[in-house]
Amino acid sequence: MTYAMVLGLLGAEEVHSRIGMEPSGRQFNELCLDYNNKPHNPMINAGAIMTAALVKPNLSAADRFDFIFNMYKRLAGDEFLGFNNAVFLSEKECADRNFALAYFMRENKCFPEGTRLHETLDFYFQLCSMEITAESGAVMAATLANGGINPLTGDPVLTIDAVRNTLTLMHSCGMYNYSGQFAFKVGLPSKSGVSGCVLLVIPNTMGICLWSPPLDTNGNSCRGVQFCMELVSRFNFHNFDNLRGQYTTKFDPRTVKAESNAQILFDLLFSTAAGDLSALRRHWLSATDMEAQDYDGRTALHVATSEGHEEIVEYLLIVCEVQPLPKDRWGRTPLDDAISFNHPCCANLIRESCNKKGIEVPSVSTNSNLGVSQ
After folding, report:
1. Does a structural domain hold residue 158?
2. pLDDT of residue 35
3. In what order do the strands lie in the sheet with 190-192?
4. Nearest Cα residue to 265 out of 288, 246, 243
5. How many whole angstroms separate alpha carbon 267 and alpha carbon 255?
6. What is the DSSP string of 2-25?
7. What is the distance of C-alpha 206 from the center of its chain?
8. Structure confidence at residue 143 (pLDDT)
């Protein structure tokens, strides 16, 4: 997660001038660099230390920790995030290998100029001492699956490029020395830790956090790996389970393939008619076309103005930035509906949107008074 944040801060080119992007083929804490004298990837200890060195190096130690802690809070949404001081002290006390890695990288001029080595290591130990629950870990994984947007809060925590690059390296390097076999058998981005935690990301679908402390010889959770294999044996989540011409008995629980555009449009218009702003937000975050038209050419904005849902009209115009004057098959606009059904506040919102966008507000159509007594 820290790597994804750093990508958002500095960009991939700057980050990977210091860190490689290849599997190491070695133990996660081995004293080695790649042929360019860089850590092989950000998923092993050397790369993680280098990643920590790139996080706001000009800030004080306290401000640096506050920055990263707040970023993790945004990733976790409303779920638990804590800091375990006992783990931090234990990490410092048993850090001979990490100190050796840091000095080895400094000898090979890996760090940016001016890097304060001991402060960087303390910061790295702090990162290793953060506590999450399975629920908060699942939200973090789901944020990656959702393109960097927290699915609970709607907060765009990570950039889409950062998410793409992070998932790519999780797929190739996230399971230590077992990464190749895991990619072959499971075929999904994942990241394990020596705490027994495994974050599994199913892009555009969901994130899963698994926790089972017993580890195998590679440092991965035994039951976590077993669960992932069982998951893809039952469901077609493997990246290459949907190749053309391939027959499979695996179940696909994802509704996107089976759900027709008509059903999505029905849900959108029904939510609008009911004044359900939360459902409308979910449609917007799911990249639903908020200007989609039904068989009569009517849009969500038509429905919202007809029902007089001012909050919905405002959300569609300001957040979703829909066109304020689409016409249905009778040539009526949302402004016509707002006037016909006597919703002046909705009409004013549409006029304001037209003025901001430089759209000329037309005179009310001849059909606008249908159903209104004279």
Report:
1. yes
2. 92
3. 190-192, 197-202, 206-211
4. 288
5. 14
6. HHHHHHHHH-HHHHTTTS--S--S
7. 10
8. 97
In a 3-state reduction of DSSP, which class is residue 193? coil
Q: Contact at 8 Å (CB) between 193 and 43?
A: no
Structure tokens given for 128: 């290793």
| 3-state secondary structure (DSSP) of residue 248 | coil
Q: What is the mean pLDDT of residues 142-156?
A: 94
d(CA 315, CA 332): 21
**Total of domains in the chain:** 2
Clarify whether residues 25 and 150 are in a common domain. yes
pLDDT band at 287 (very low <50, low <70, confident <90, very high): confident
Q: Do 106 and 220 share a domain, yes or no?
A: yes
- Is the pTM higher than 0.85? no
224 neighbors 208 (Cβ within 8 angstroms): no
Given a contact cutoff of 8 angstroms between Cβ atoms, the answer to whether 163 and 149 are in contact is no
Distance of alpha carbon 268 from alpha carbon 45, whole angstroms: 47
Query: 3-class DSSP state for residue 105?
Result: helix
Range of the domain at 336: 261-357
Beta strands in the chain (DSSP E): 81-83, 130-132, 190-192, 197-202, 206-211
Same domain flag for 15 and 156: yes
Do residues 193 and 279 share a domain? no
The Cα–Cα gap between 10 and 78 comes to 27
Asked if residues 74 and 150 have their Cβ atoms less than 8 Å apart, the reply is: yes
pLDDT reported for residue 259: 53
State how far the Cα of 374 lies from the Cα of 369, in Å rounded to an integer. Answer: 8
